[in-house]
Amino acid sequence: MCSLSSGTQDDTSSGFTSDESASVSQRSSDQGLIFENSILSSGTLDALIHHVMPGVDYYPDRTYVFAFLLSSRLFIKPHALLAQVADTCSLHRSLYPASLSIVSMGTFCRHIVRLISEWTDTFAYDFRDERMMKSLHDITHFCLTFEPEARKDISQILQNLLARLSGLERYEERLKAISVEAANRIRASIPVTDIFEMCPNPTVLALHLTSIELERLRFIGPEEFVQAFAKENATVETSLRDMKRTRNLEAYVQWFNRLSYLVATEVCMQLKKRHRVRLLDYFIDVAKECFNLGNFNSLMAIIAGLNMSPVSRLRRTWAKANVQKFEILEHQMDPTGNFNSYRATLKAAMWRSEGASTDRERVIIPFFSLLVKDLYFLNEGCANRQKSGHVNFDKFWQVAKQITQFLAWKQATSPVDKNSPVVKYLLTNPVFSESALALASFECESPDNNYEKNRSKQLKIELSGAPQIPA
Fold first, then answer.
1. Cα distance between residue 66 and residue 229, in whole Å
2. Which phi and psi (to 5°) does residue 39 adopt?
3. What is the mean pLDDT of the chain?
4. Is the Cβ–Cβ distance between 188 and 181 less than 8 Å?
5. Number of CB atoms found within 10 A of residue 425's CB
6. Model pLDDT, residue 21
7. What's the Cα-to-Cα distance from 126 to each of 63, 182, 222, 288, 356, rounded to whole Å?
8. What is the predicted pLDDT for the residue at 6?
9. 3-state secondary structure of 35
10. Where are the alpha helices (DSSP H) in 410-449?
11. Does 76 have pLDDT greater than 90?
12. pLDDT for residue 13 is more than 90
């Protein structure tokens, strides 16, 4: 069993509910697998691979397929695993017609089509690898030879896969264009801090933030979390460089940081105190609306921005702001007890989402850094292999459960148009670096002590009055 130290979500002892785990199909030839209370807990890599391979009279449980395809990449590269599926097809071809009838071959092919359907649907980014596409072509050709009626299903699988990969390419191009435009704007002029004038309604801005969050969440592949483990662990048997073909996790973290800096920039660029107070109250209200929407990531990014030193030191400004409302929000995201308050709120949001009657009520955007931290501690607290050399599948049930939950959350419908001027502003308006923010803060409220006075002088020399994009 694993020793967890992260305080992750409840019911992680097997990764899925006991009923789901117990329903994992078994075949009489499954040697090298260990079950505890009817739940697969460990096995040799070869046995686990054999367990995921369909047969004429066998198809693995869908929860096992997901958990294995998710975590097996720590031990075998996806293209090598799919090549073994192709080898299994070749083996069945060699048994026809002496040992297998055309009916049996048809049944086997339908099982193979189901497996590649689940693989391409959930782990589409694996197929950016040309080796994967070659094996996929060989497998589908085999299936069409023995089960021509599968042509419609196979065509739909390939169309859906192409749409997913094309959508990812467009998203990546969009991120590059946003990055270029933001860089051009910071070189062309100082930031124009008019978010309040552009979008004076806090609820509307919270909806736009939620739209941005959902777009970025939607393109994160579940395998990216596991590949992040590989990056942290130099002893895994596979090559990260060979697997990693996306940067969606990094793009999402960069968005969180940008939002925090944007909030701080908007406040510190206001030279008049009443305008700064207005911006503080505005962002506090936006954060409250994010909380009501279930957008905890933007909520935390706004809190982080308001707690940055250049903003938090503006004591005369904060004296006029609605500090009590801000403290209530801070309490909800308090890290005490491993974020106990937030975890209780998240659980309540999950209950609300399950009984939701509108798309807006279904939205759950978790505090992403904590989600990653939970998975990191789960990974660090549990070995990939047991002392016997068996793969520790109990760990991978737990990983699969948490990521399955994440997959459900990212399917929520965006509440507003992602191409609106407000979204463009949020994504591209120039933001200050930490040093530039500090200097702007001193211009808002003069240094209070010798340290701040010396720091202000250093910053003026360092920056020569020119704002910078954060690194």
1. 17
2. -110, 130
3. 89
4. no
5. 17
6. 37
7. 19, 31, 11, 39, 33
8. 44
9. strand
10. 421-428, 434-444
11. yes
12. no
Contacts of 257 (CB under 8 A, 6+ apart): 301, 470
* Beta carbons of 247 and 227 less than 8 angstroms apart: no
Q: What is the pLDDT of residue 17?
A: 41
C-alpha span between 436 and 471 (Å, rounded): 12
3-state secondary structure of 172: helix
Spatial CB neighbours of 151, under 8 Å, sequence gap ≥ 6: 144
SS3 383: coil
Token output for 189: 């002029």
CA dihedral 213, 252, 288, 283 (to 10 degrees): -110
- Within 31-97, strands assigned E span 33-36, 39-43
Among 254, 171, 221, which residue's Cα sits nearest to residue 410?
A: 221
- HSE-up (13 A, CA, CB side) for residue 166: 6
Amino acid at 118: E
Task: Work out the average pLDDT over 123-135.
Answer: 97
Query: What's the rounded Cα separation, in Å, for the pair 260 and 266?
Result: 10
Find the helix packing angle between 223-232 and 248-268, rounded to 10°. Answer: 90
What is the residue type of 257? N
Strand partners, 385: 391
Quote the CA–CA distance of 154 and 316 in Å, as a whole number. Answer: 66
Which helix H or strand E contains 338, and what residues bound it? helix 336-354
Return the closest-CA partner of residue 9 out of 286, 412, 342: 342
Tokens 């075998």 correspond to: 76
Q: What is the DSSP letter of 295?
A: B
DSSP state of 412: P
Determine how many CB atoms are found less than 10 A away from the CB of residue 466: 11
Task: Answer for the pair 135, 79: CB distance below 8 angstroms, yes or no.
Answer: yes
Tell which residue, 18, 9, 49, has the closest CA to residue 31: 49
Mapping DSSP onto H, E and C, the string for 349-382 reads HHHHHHCCCCCHHHCCECCHHHHHHHHHHHHHHC
178 alpha carbon, distance to own chain's centre = 20
Q: pLDDT grade, residue 419 (50/70/90)? A: confident
Three-class DSSP category at 271: coil
> Which pLDDT value is given to residue 12?
37
Query: What angle is formed at CA 217 by the lines to CA 184 and CA 267, rounded to 5 degrees?
Result: 50
Per-residue tokens: 52: 């995921």
